[in-house]
Design brief:
Radius of gyration: 15 Å
Number of strands: 8
CATH architecture: 2-Layer Sandwich
Helix content: 25-40%
Structural class: alpha+beta
Number of helices: 5
Shape: globular
Largest sheet: 6 strands, mixed
CATH topology: Peptide Methionine Sulfoxide Reductase, Chain A
Strand order of the largest sheet: 7-6-1-3-2-8
Distance between the termini: 28 Å
Strand content: 15-25%
CATH superfamily: Peptide methionine sulphoxide reductase MsrA
Number of domains: 1
């Protein structure tokens, strides 16, 4: 595989198990890793993040080949796999670790994410304004191994 062509983006959209499963199905996504980012403590654990004191978000780092999948496709998937209008909540999961966020690595990703968010806000799809944060990527901490590919390991579709 040509690793030079690989790019990456980090999405926070609620519990990372489901988000990872959604992105793993996309042709051109070459790897996904559940983890934590956006906080103020080093080497957080799942327990630390769930306690709500680290500032970290449950996220999925998505590695992809832009020759096979567009960044727009990834953004469209992000907007459609969660509710970006709820602050610190996705369904039954409540807490700041579940907030909606896009962590970009390049100026192009930032611009595309901001344009996409604006399009979503004006699409009429959402009754409430989108609260998704668009932030520069910070240190990413992979989650514990038992969180990786959780749905695959447990036979959940």
């Amino acid at each position: 595989m040509d690793t030079e062509a690989q790019e990456h983006i980090i999405f926070g959209a609620g519990c990372f198990w489901g988000i990872e499963a959604v992105f793993r199905k996309i042709k051109g996504v070459t790897n996904t890793t559940c983890g934590y980012t956006g906080g103020h403590t080093d080497n957080p654990t799942y327990s630390d993040v769930c306690a709500g004191n680290t500032g970290h978000i449950e996220v999925v780092r998505v590695e992809y080949d832009p020759r096979q999948v567009s960044f727009k496709t990834l953004l469209d998937t992000f907007w459609h796999c969660h509710n970006p209008t709820t602050q610190d909540r996705q369904g039954a999961d409540i807490g700041s670790q579940y907030r909606s966020a896009i962590f970009f690595f390049t100026p192009e990703q930032k611009s595309a994410a901001e344009a996409s968010k604006s399009e979503q806000n004006h699409s009429g799809r959402w009754q409430d304004p989108i609260v998704t944060e668009i932030l520069p990527a910070k240190k990413f901490y992979p989650a514990e191994e038992y969180h990786q590919r959780y749905f695959e390991k447990h036979g959940i579709g």
